[in-house]
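hi! just following up on the protien thing from before. the input was this:
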Amino acid sequence: MFTESSPAMDPDLPESETRPEFNPSSTDSTVTTNSGTVQTAMDSDSVEARPEATTFELAASQVTSVADLPPERFNSLDELTHDLGSLHELSTRGSWQAILEKISQARALFLLTKPHEHLTYLTYQVMALAKLRRSDEAAHELNSLHDFDGTHYRYESFPEIYPNRRGSMVPFSLRWLYALIPTKLGNRQEGLDRLYVLLDFVRDRIREKESQNLDDSVELWKKRETFVMNCLLGFHLGHKEFGVSLDLMKELINRDPLDPVLISKLGSVQMQFGDIEGAKTTFDRVEKMLNEGKSNGLLNEIQFKNLVGRNKALVHVVAKDYVSAVREYDKCIERDNSDIIAVNNKALCLMYLRDLSDAIKVMESALERVPTAALNESLVVNLCSMYELAYVNHTDVKRTLNNWIARVAPDDFDSSCTRV
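and the predicted 3d structure came back as:
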C-alpha cells in the first residue's frame, strides 16, 4: 500500500547570532479529525492542530537557515564553525539522533576550539533534543548557560581569539529556544513570558542599531522581531485568545500590508469568532491582491493562487458546502500536488460527504506520491481515524502504516499518532 535550515555565525554583524526564519507560505487554516470527530482548527502555522507544538515545530524547521552569510568572505559553513555544514545537512534530513552523536564525538575529541563554536553546537544539541521530544534534557542544557548577557558570552572578552570584534556570541536561535522549551514541558505561561522578554530584547537591539545607522543590522533584527511576533500569534490563536491575537495581527499587517498569508490568517480568525461576512471581505482582499499582482514577494504565483483557493474552500466548509470545497481543493492539488493542506482538507470534506473510501485514497496517494511533504502527524492522525471508521480490521491496517512510517520518517516524527 505504501512505498517509499543551520545556526550560523554572521561575522560581519556586531551581534553574531542565528536567525530562525518564519515561513509564511505554510500558514493556513485546516480541518482536523480525531477518532471520527471532525472539527475546524484555524491553526496559525501549519497542518498540525497543536498550537504550542505547531509554532515550535514550524520555527524549529526554519532555524537551520543559513541566510545572511557574507559570501564574499566565507566559502562554506565549515569556515564559520567546525563541521557546521555537516550539521546543517543532517538537520535538513531530520537526522537529529545523528546530530547528537556528531556533537558528542566533537566534544570528546576536543574539536571545538573557540567559544562561539561551543554555543553553536549547543544550539544544535538543544534543537535536536527538543525535536526528539527530550525537552527535559534540552531544558537542563539551557539552564547550564546561566546569564546569556554575561561578559563571558561576549567577543570582547576574548580579544586574542576575536580581535576587533564586539557584541554577543549567543546565537539568536538559542535565545528563542530558551523561550520555547517551557511550552514543550507544559509550562505555557512561562514560555509566553520568555517570548515577550525576547521581543523586548529584539526591540532594544533595533533601537540600538538604528541609533548607530547600521541599516543591515536593523533589517536583520526587524525580521527577528516579526518572527517572534508570529510565534506569539500562534500561541494566542491556539488558545482562542482573539483579542491579543487581533492586536498582533493588526500590528504585523500595518508593517507589511501586502502580506497575503497574514491577511488570510486574519480572515480565519474572523471566522472563528463568527464574523463570516468580515472573513469573506478579508479573503476578497487577498484575491484582489492576486489579481492586481500585489504581494510582498514571499509567495510564488502557484502558492498565491492556492492560498486564495484554500480561502474560498474554507468559506464553503463553514457553510457546509463540502462539494464546492472539494472542487476548490482539487484545483489547488492540480496546481501543486504537494499542497498537503489542500490534500488533508479535501479528504476530510469527502469524509463529511460520507465517502470514506475516496477520502482514504486521497491521503494514501499523497503519502505515496510526496512522502516528504505528506508525512505530517496531523494528516496521519486523520488517516488513522478514517481507518477506524471504515475497517473492522483497522488495527492491522494501521500497523502496516506504522511500519512504513518507521522506514521513511525523520527521527522527530511522532509515530504514536497512528494509535497502534
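The longest helix spans residues 188-211.
Confidence is low (pLDDT under 50) at residues 1-72.
cheers
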